[in-house]
Design goal:
Distance between the termini: 48 Å
Helix content: 25-40%
CATH topology: Rossmann fold
Number of strands: 4
Strand order of the largest sheet: 2-1-3-4
Order of helices and strands: HEHHEHEHE
CATH class: Alpha Beta
């Protein structure tokens, strides 16, 4: 099977990719960004995701339970914060216990970055409401 490689022009598309595992910390879309770090499930559970929380933010997505690279994510997120003059950081996660790992990972990344910043956190209930 022939494989086609597609080169993405970041300047034209805004942001791609969204999965934290695939994001280059030096991507131009990270510079001066308002970051939204969200759990994989949130956009499916929270019906107003795009309208209420995504506008004008750069989204980074991962699952603290299913992804076995959380330590790598902490390092990558710390680098993103450290080198990109991040303007704000918001966590959006589900109310389930396993999503608490997202909060711990983001706080650890901020600590490792050496930056001081306010982290806003919103928890989404299983019925799609902000708790």
């Amino acid at each position: 099977m022939k494989r086609t490689v597609i080169k993405i022009d970041e300047e034209k598309c805004g942001q791609w990719p969204v999965q934290l595992a695939l994001v280059n910390p030096e991507s131009s879309f990270c510079r001066g960004a308002d970051l939204l770090v969200t759990a994989d499930c949130v956009p499916f559970a929270f019906g107003n995701f795009h309208k209420r929380v995504l506008r004008n933010k750069i989204v980074l997505v991962f699952c603290p339970k299913l992804d076995d690279r959380v330590d790598d994510y902490i390092e990558k997120l710390a680098k993103i914060i450290q080198i990109n003059n991040i303007q704000s950081l918001t966590i959006l996660r589900m109310e389930v216990p396993c999503c608490g790992g997202m909060t711990r990972a983001v706080k650890e990344a901020v600590r490792k970055s050496g930056k001081t910043m306010v982290i806003k956190e919103y928890v989404i209930s299983l019925n799609g409401k902000i708790v």
